[in-house]
C-alpha cells in the first residue's frame, strides 16, 4: 500500500491555476515581484531551524515509506511498523558513523607527524618565495595569518549556520526521527488535505503529481546512495594503489563531498593531495591523484549519474549549480543537499501547471528542437526575410 493507489494514465489537460487576467504596468509588477521574492527568501532564512529538519524528515520519510509499507503488509501494528522502520534507519546511520569514527581515530594518531612535516614544507615554501619574489618571511607570515583568520571566521559562520539550522547535533538526531514518525503516522491525513485543497476534477492530476514526486525523490536518494558507494570504492582503490595514507577514510570523505553537485567533487581532490604532499616527497603522487580523481569524476558525471541518479531528476547543470550555491548561502551545507531534490519537485509541479510550464522547461535538460532564429542566429532571420520577399 503506497502513498496512493496507482491508476491507468490518461492524457489530460494541464492544471490551470486560474491567474487573474487583469494586467498591471511593468513598473508596478516588477517591484512587487522583487519584494515578494525578498520576503519569501527572508522568511525561509528566518525559519530555517524549523524548515530544514522538517525538509530532511520529509525526504527520508518518502525514502522509508516502502519499508514501512512492508511492515504493514506483515500485519505489524501501525506504530510498531513506524518504530521498526526508524530503528532500521538508525542502525544504518550508526554503522556508517562507527566506520568513519574508527577511521578518524587512526588518522588522529598521525597528527603530530603530519604537523611536523607540514611545518617543514611551509618553511621550504617560504624560502623559495623569498628567493624568487623577494618577499620577506615576516610579510609572508602576516599574509598567511590574515588569510587564515578570514577563512576561520567565514568557516565558523558557515558551519555555525549549518549547526544552528538543526539546533545542533543533539537536536538533529531528535527532531528528524520525531518528524519522520509523525509524517508516517499522519500520512493519510496529509494526503487527504492535499486532495481536498484542489477541485475534485483535478484529483487525478494531483495524484499523478504526488506519485511522480514520490518516485523522483525515492529514485534520487537511492541513486545517491548507490553513487556514493561506487565513488567511495573507486576513490579508496585509487588511493590504495598510489600508496596514500588513510586511503579508505579519504575515499569515503571524497564520496560524501561528491554529494554536493559539481562543487563537492572539486573539494574532494584537495584532501588527498594535501595528505600526499605531507606524507610523501615529490610531486608525482599528487599529480597521479589529480589524474585518478579526474577520471573518476568523468566516469561519475558521464556514466554513473546519468544512469543511476538522473533517471527521474532531470535538472540541467546551470540550474543545478545556481540552486546549490543559493541553498548553501541560505541554509549552509544542509541547503546544498536539499537544493537538487527540491528543484526536481518544483519541475514536476511546473510541468503540470499551464502558466508555469516554461519554468519547468527552463529547469529541465531537454533542448528545444526549434529555437527562435531571430534570437539564436540573426543570419537565419535575414535568410527567412529574403525568402518571404
TrEMBL record:
For this UniProt record, give its keywords in alphabetical order, as a comma-separated list. Answer: Cell membrane, Membrane, Transmembrane, Transmembrane helix, Transport
Cross-referenced InterPro entries, in alphabetical order? AI-2E-like
* Topology in the lipid bilayer: Multi-pass membrane protein
Q: Which domain of life is it from?
A: Bacteria
Q: Name one Pfam family in it.
A: AI-2E_transport
Q: Where are the transmembrane segments?
A: 50-68, 80-100, 166-186, 220-242, 248-275, 287-305, 317-350
Q: Which GO terms describe its cellular component?
A: plasma membrane
Task: Tell me if Transmembrane is a UniProt keyword of this record.
Answer: yes
* Main subcellular location: membrane
Disordered as annotated region, ranges: 370-389
Q: Where in the cell is it found?
A: Cell membrane
* Family assignment from sequence similarity: Belongs to the autoinducer-2 exporter (AI-2E) (TC 2.A.86) family.
Entry protein name: AI-2E family transporter
Query: To which species is this protein native?
Result: Dyadobacter luticola
Amino acid at each position: 500500500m503506497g502513498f496512493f493507489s496507482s491508476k491507468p494514465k490518461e492524457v489530460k489537460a494541464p492544471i490551470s491555476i486560474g491567474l487573474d487576467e487583469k494586467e498591471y504596468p511593468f513598473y508596478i509588477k516588477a517591484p512587487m515581484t522583487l519584494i515578494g521574492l525578498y520576503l519569501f527568501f527572508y522568511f525561509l532564512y528566518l525559519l530555517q531551524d524549523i524548515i530544514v529538519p522538517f525538509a530532511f524528515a520529509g525526504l527520508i520519510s518518502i525514502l522509508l515509506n516502502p519499508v514501512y509499507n512492508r511492515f504493514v503488509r506483515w500485519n505489524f501494528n501501525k506504530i510498531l511498523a513506524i518504530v521498526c522502520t526508524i530503528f532500521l534507519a538508525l542502525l544504518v546511520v550508526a554503522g556508517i558513523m562507527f566506520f568513519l569514527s574508527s577511521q578518524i581515530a587512526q588518522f588522529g594518531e598521525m597528527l603530530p607527524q603530519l604537523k611536523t612535516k607540514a611545518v617543514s614544507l611551509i618553511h621550504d615554501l617560504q624560502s623559495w618565495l623569498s628567493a624568487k619574489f623577494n618577499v620577506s618571511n615576516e610579510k609572508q607570515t602576516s599574509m598567511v595569518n590574515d588569510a587564515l583568520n578570514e577563512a576561520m571566521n567565514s568557516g565558523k559562520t558557515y558551519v555555525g549556520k549549518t549547526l544552528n539550522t538543526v539546533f545542533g547535533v543533539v537536536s538533529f538526531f531528535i527532531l528528524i526521527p520525531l518528524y519522520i514518525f509523525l509524517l508516517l503516522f499522519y500520512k493519510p491525513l496529509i494526503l487527504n488535505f492535499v486532495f481536498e485543497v484542489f477541485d475534485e476534477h483535478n484529483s487525478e492530476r494531483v495524484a499523478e503529481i504526488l506519485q511522480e514526486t514520490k518516485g523522483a525523490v525515492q529514485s534520487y536518494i537511492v541513486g545517491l546512495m548507490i553513487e556514493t558507494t561506487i565513488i567511495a570504492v573507486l576513490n579508496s582503490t585509487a588511493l590504495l594503489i598510489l600508496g596514500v595514507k588513510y586511503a579508505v577514510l579519504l575515499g569515503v570523505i571524497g564520496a560524501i563531498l561528491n554529494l554536493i553537485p559539481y562543487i563537492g567533487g572539486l573539494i574532494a581532490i584537495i584532501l588527498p593531495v594535501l595528505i600526499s604532499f605531507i606524507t610523501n616527497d615529490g610531486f608525482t603522487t599528487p599529480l597521479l591523484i589529480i589524474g585518478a580523481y579526474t577520471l573518476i569524476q568523468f566516469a561519475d558525471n558521464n556514466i554513473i549519474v546519468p544512469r543511476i541518479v538522473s533517471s527521474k531528476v532531470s535538472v540541467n547543470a546551470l540550474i543545478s549549480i545556481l540552486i546549490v550555491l543559493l541553498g548553501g548561502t541560505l541554509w549552509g551545507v544542509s541547503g546544498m543537499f536539499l537544493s537538487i531534490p527540491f528543484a526536481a519537485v518544483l519541475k514536476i509541479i511546473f510541468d503540470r501547471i499551464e502558466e508555469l510550464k516554461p519554468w519547468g522547461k527552463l529547469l529541465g535538460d531537454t533542448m528545444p528542437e526549434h529555437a527562435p532564429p531571430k534570437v539564436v542566429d540573426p543570419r537565419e532571420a535575414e535568410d527567412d526575410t529574403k525568402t518571404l520577399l
